[in-house]
Every structure is written in structure tokens, then in C-alpha cells.
Write a structure and sequence with these properties.
alpha+beta; Pnp Oxidase, Chain A; 4 helices
Length: 158
């Protein structure tokens, strides 16, 4: 059997619904952030998270320089934020019009459902992405409907 085509792989994986997050860190030119859906809890003891960032991501460079990262889990009304942070626009441009604050030394998207601050632990090269793991040092959460990415579109969970 021949190996799958990359486009077929992309289409197949689009059938897996994922939560939508913004991974953030303070960079040399201010806050940096990128939309990421390959984000997951990794461990309870110790509490750890993982996030996958494109190898060429400016946010990855900021995460490494800051030795930590934040994760803002977006709610169903925050699709414009997800779209803005998914672009290769200049770092400062992504934050234009976005309500955010610094929490525990990291940029956080205001009104997100969940916000997690992590101390960087591991940086693991994996294909065209890099996996960063972090030990959780702060957490905030509230109830609401998450924003989901499925079949190439942002959608509310319901």
C-alpha cells in the first residue's frame, strides 16, 4: 500500500474537532501569539501542558526566549481573534483591537474561557513543528461554549 498523500492526511485530520487556543509569550518587541489547535494537557502530576508550534513561528522564538508560555482557550464568540492570530501579520498587528492583559508575566486574551501559564520545560523537534511542554504555574477558568475548529472551519461546539 503506498503512503498517504499529505493532502489526504490534511483532509482526514480536518475531521478531528479541536479546541482553539492562542499560545502567547512576551517577545523582544512586545507580546507574541499564534493560534494553535494542537494543544493538550499532558500530565496531572506534575501539571503539564503541551503545544505544537510551526517551526518558523515567531511565537515559538518568543516562548523560548521568555522560558514560558500562556494558553488562552477561546470561546465561541472569539473567532475574529483566532483568525487574526492565525496569520503571518506583523506581531504588533495581531494584537490590534484585541482585549488582553498581562497575567503572571504573560500576555492573556481577556474573556477567554481558560487561561493557563506555563514554565517552559521541553522543546522537542517533530516534523515541521516543534512541541513545547510546560509546567503549569497559574490557571483561570470559567464556564462557556468553546470555539472549535472542524472540517476547516471555526464553529461553536453546539
Amino acid at each position: 500500500m503506498p503512503p498517504p498523500d499529505p493532502d489526504a492526511f490534511r483532509v482526514a485530520m480536518s475531521g478531528l474537532p479541536t479546541g482553539v487556543t492562542i499560545v502567547t509569550a512576551n517577545g523582544p518587541d512586545g507580546p507574541a501569539g499564534a493560534t494553535a489547535n494542537a494543544v493538550s494537557s499532558l500530565s496531572i502530576e506534575p501539571m503539564m501542558m503541551l503545544a505544537c508550534l510551526d517551526r518558523g513561528s515567531r511565537t515559538l522564538l518568543a516562548v523560548q526566549a521568555a522560558d514560558g508560555f500562556g494558553i488562552s482557550v477561546l470561546h465561541a464568540g472569539q473567532e475574529p481573534i483566532a483568525r487574526a492570530f492565525a496569520t503571518k501579520a506583523p506581531v504588533a498587528e495581531k494584537w490590534t483591537g484585541v482585549a488582553w492583559s498581562e497575567r503572571d508575566g504573560l500576555p492573556a486574551i481577556d474573556d477567554a474561557l481558560i487561561w493557563i501559564a506555563c514554565d517552559l520545560r521541553d522543546v522537542i523537534s517533530a516534523g515541521d513543528h516543534v512541541i513545547v511542554t510546560g509546567e503549569v504555574r497559574a490557571l483561570e477558568s470559567r464556564q462557556g461554549d468553546p470555539l472549535v475548529f472542524h472540517a476547516g472551519e471555526y464553529r461553536p461546539l453546539a
